[in-house]
Structures
1.
Amino acid sequence: MLYGIVFFIIAVASFIFAMLGLGGGMVYVPVLNWAGFDMVSVAIPLGLLLNGLNTGLVLIPFARKKMVDWKGGAVMAVTALVASPIGAMTSDKVPVATLKILFAIMVVAAAIRMIYASKMAEPDEMMSMKKRSIIGFFVGGFAGFVGGMLGLGGGFIIAPILMMMGYKTKEAAATTAFVVTFSSISGYLGHVSQGHMNWPLTIIVVIAVIIGSQLGGRYMTQKAKSKQVKVIYAIVLLVIAAKMVYGVIH
């Protein structure tokens, strides 16, 4: 029964976050923790695996529609790839309550930024490749480290920054998926090297992510509207942050 509930929630979350190119770690981690699985040894590493799987799968429809800026996201992807396992290896050295508070703060910040962005028109001009590469170097490193430590992949940091650089919503989501795939998988490997894994649970939630990501990617490329995506993103983030803070307080 418990695994069935987790399967359903993970599948729905994968559908929503596949549209955003974020993976869904900010849902996977608290849901797994709520279901009774340890935050550091199970929820965070499994959240990273599912994050990377979701964004990796949704890259397929994004790439077919030529929405991914491979060149522009390359620097960010490389620095996130390097920093994520470092963050992953520090997660067991930070108190769980502190991890949850950091998680909530990051999610609220991303939600506020997205609410603000939903009221603005799509950008007409993009920063130069040089500026994007310089900013991407530092943002990728920071997002990779924080994402690896919290089990998020860092997409909630990367997507708003790409929009600030001048990316349109759908292109930002697609390029975020590209970067997050690398940071999530490398962060997951950092956790696996420490020997933490629950294989029956892993198989169940991986199937849920495969189903959700394909449906979400198809919806994003064919039907979703930019403002609609931003509003959904912000609402989901605020609900998750509230749940995490409530969990710490009680």
2.
Amino acid sequence: MDCLFCKIAAGQIPSNKVYEDDQFLVFHDIQPAAPTHVLIIPKKHIATMNDVAAEDLAMIGEMHKVAQNAAKKLGISESGYRLINNCGPDSGQAVYHIHYHLLGGAKLGALTGISESHA
């Protein structure tokens, strides 16, 4: 498989890990968009949120718990954080392996949901 995040999860590509267990990996984004910016990935390859199957729903719930724990470990749970999943090309998804961006560490700007072409 030629998936970047599968290679990171397998240890073939190094990452700055925050947390790892048998199902998930949390690591620092190499192009941070906030003072704290980590990626939360399942080790199971699922390309997009649209590809999550019924048997994956419990894992997605656990992924949210991993996000909560990562925010606590990184010291941003009380001040606030943003949890983002991009799904598909119009969202800006760059790696087709489901993942969450966990951002915080500063007051983040408002998200309007309006693209520049529709503003």
3.
Amino acid sequence: MPLFDAYATHYEDWYATPRGRLVWELEWRCLQKLLSLRPGEKVLDAGCGTGVVSRALAAAGAEVTGIDISPAMLAVAREKGAGGNIVYLEGDMSSLPFPDASFDAVVCFTALEFVAEPERALEEMWRVLKPGGRLLVGVLNHRSSWARRRKGKGVFAHAHFYSVRELEQLLRKLNPCRVKWQGVIYFPPELPSWLFSLVPLFEFLGRLFFKSSAAVLIFRADKCL
């Protein structure tokens, strides 16, 4: 049974909490800025889970294909939003069932941590990306206070937390034209909700002085024309 099948029915409960909504808002803002999505572009959401990112991409005007290895997660994704400009498929991101150069952009958000062969998965994402396209990879950062709290617990017991250097080295092997990244979520996980008004200050100071300590690292690699 795929790892996430057991978590499917309550996976999105986190996003319904004030803390979860705030985290997702910050993550999506960062992801959207790096992606520079153009309406009508074909985007692959690799490791789409219950479709949180897929739905956001579709709402922003993309034609989205979400792929995941977990049937239970995909069942939730289809229930929450399929049809129209989102299609969900069951499959392994380490062996994508698409021809070369199929997508304008590929997004893999907090999924690479759970892949047994991340280098092979990245090579597959790169293969299906069109020349001139963008690969966005968001990973959990091993240096953050969030990682220290999560490691060894629940599904995170199976996760590999990345560093900036480690993920950049993996992406450089793809021979991209350019690699850039941003960090997001600098406020501590224990921050009480009555101090959420200070989150913009945490984000500003974090990006300025502690960039590599973000909870989530989002990388963009551009494929040469």
